[in-house]
Amino acid sequence: MSVSAITPSTQNEPQLQIASRSLKQAVNSGFKWDNEEQLWNKLNSEIDEFKRADSPESKEDEFGDILHSLVSIANWHNVDPQTAMTNANQKFISRFKITEKLVAQDKKTMSDLNLKEILKYWSQAKQQVSENENNLNLYT
């Protein structure tokens, strides 16, 4: 019996890290795409399958395949998907909190607004975050 190229995961290992590691191990064993375009084609194929899925279970399964494809693309570009997700979460939460403050400053609530109005505040929040980041970079 041969030993798998993919090593077992630990119980507490984040799923994005497991995906990244196992995909890298698969690549190292010879299971790899020839070029980046193939990765994008695979992602688009998985998105199409998700759109056609007709049950919550199949939607969940196909969404997992989308995430796996995205991790493959991240690996191709030497991007750590766990770090990328952490940073994206922090950025979203920061922008959302600023959006809430901007809405409150205008004596409104998020539920008072339609999406177009919320996106105007969101754009302002993104600009504030960007300006704050630029100001921090001046001092580093």
In short:
This protein has 140 residues and is an all-alpha fold. The protein is built from five helices and no strands.
Describe this structure in words.
This protein has 140 residues and is mainly α. It folds into 2 domains: 15-79, MazG-like (Helix Hairpins, Orthogonal Bundle), CATH 1.10.287; 83-138, no CATH class. The protein contains 5 helices and no strands. The protein has helices at 15-28, 36-52, 56-76, 81-105, 115-138. Helix 1 (15-28) packs across helix 3. The protein is elongated.
Biggest sheet architecture = none
User: What would CATH call the homologous superfamily of the largest domain?
Assistant: MazG-like
Strand content: under 5%
| Broad shape | elongated
The CATH class of the largest domain turns out to be Mainly Alpha
Q: How many beta-strand elements?
A: 0
Gross CATH architecture of the largest domain: Orthogonal Bundle
Poorly predicted regions: none
Give the SSE order as H and E letters: HHHHH
Annotation field: number of helices: 5
Question: What proportion of the residues is helical, as a percent range?
Answer: over 70%
Distance between the termini: 55 Å
CATH topology of the largest domain: Helix Hairpins
Q: What is the CA-based Rg, rounded?
A: 20 Å
Average pLDDT confidence is 90
Strand-helix topology:
Blueprint: H1 15-28, H2 36-52, H3 56-76, H4 81-105, H5 115-138
Key structural traits:
single chain; 140 residues; mainly alpha; Helix Hairpins; 2 domains
